[in-house]
Design goal:
78 residues
C-alpha cells in the first residue's frame, strides 16, 4: 500500500525558501550599499601630495645643521 505524502511539508518548505531568499537578497543589497558608501568616502578623501625631493633636501639640510651644531659644541669643550 502506497503512503500519501502530506502537502503541508511542501508548503512550509516553500515559505521557508521564500523567506530565506528574501533575507539573502536583503543582505546582498545592504552589502552593495555599504560598498558604495565606503567607495565614495574613500574617493572623497585624497591623500596629500608629497614632494619627495624637497622633503629629502629638507632632511639633508637639517642633518647637516645638526652635525655642524654638535661638532662646534664638541670642539668648544676640548
Amino acid at each position: 500500500m502506497k503512503r500519501k505524502k502530506k502537502a503541508y511539508l511542501t508548503l512550509e518548505a516553500t515559505w521557508m525558501f521564500g523567506l530565506a531568499l528574501l533575507i539573502f537578497i536583503g543582505v546582498l543589497l545592504l552589502t552593495i550599499s555599504l560598498y558604495g558608501e565606503t567607495y565614495k568616502e574613500i574617493s572623497d578623501r585624497k591623500p596629500p601630495e608629497i614632494n619627495a625631493v624637497s622633503e629629502f633636501r629638507k632632511i639633508a639640510v637639517a642633518k647637516d645643521m645638526a652635525e655642524k651644531i654638535t661638532d662646534k659644541g664638541d670642539k668648544k669643550e676640548e
